[in-house]
TrEMBL record:
Enzyme class at the top of the EC tree: hydrolase
A matching Pfam family: Exonuc_VII_S
Gene: xseB
Assigned EC number: 3.1.11.6
Taxonomy, superkingdom: Bacteria
Protein name stated in the entry: Exodeoxyribonuclease 7 small subunit
Reaction equation(s) it catalyzes: Exonucleolytic cleavage in either 5'- to 3'- or 3'- to 5'-direction to yield nucleoside 5'-phosphates
Family according to the record: Belongs to the XseB family.
Length: 71
């Protein structure tokens, strides 16, 4: 994430990624525009993956805590 840009939510990143993919699939862009869209898509995919990894980690911790509690 860029220091001058606040972190996006998962939903915001996913929605923008869908739009980037739509534009790339539609075509009609210059090579430079396509490369910029691709790069932005990579950034957004990384953001989404970070959110998913964080959610997976939180879930694993919650499950471990639940399993450690005596019945």
């Amino acid at each position: 994430m860029s220091a001058d840009r606040p972190e996006m939510t998962y939903e915001q990143a996913r929605e923008e990624l869908v739009e980037v993919v739509r534009k790339l699939e539609a075509g009609g862009t210059t090579l430079e525009e396509s490369l910029a869209l691709w790069e932005r898509g990579e950034e957004l995919a990384t953001t989404c993956q970070r959110w998913l990894d964080g959610a997976r980690e939180r879930l694993a911790k919650a499950q471990a805590t639940h399993e450690e509690k005596p019945n």
